[in-house]
Amino acid sequence: MRFGHFKSSIGSVSQKVLTAQLRAMEADGLVHREVYAEVPPRVEYSLTETGLSLSPVIEAMSDWGQSYQEKHVALFEEA
């Protein structure tokens, strides 16, 4: 995935913050950064095996967050 796609998918994140997070994830072995010798330069990111292994954890956290939010919205609407 290209940097610009990340930025547009996430929304309101600065280039500085996104760059720092991608570099940290690369240093932690979660993403692979591929630089292509083109003009203009092209950089693509992909998940490593370690990054892919986190998918079930992230999906479970997302499911929990959605369930939590739905319960609290329902409670708020009842009040």
TrEMBL record:
Species in which this protein is naturally found: Streptococcus dysgalactiae subsp. equisimilis (Streptococcus equisimilis)
Domain HTH hxlR-type, residue spans: 1-73
Stored InterPro entries: HTH_HxlR, WH-like_DNA-bd_sf, WH_DNA-bd_sf
Stored SUPFAM superfamilies: Winged helix' DNA-binding domain (SSF46785)
Domain of life: Bacteria
Alphabetized UniProt keyword annotations: DNA-binding, Transcription, Transcription regulation
GO molecular function: DNA binding
Protein name: Transcriptional regulator, MarR family
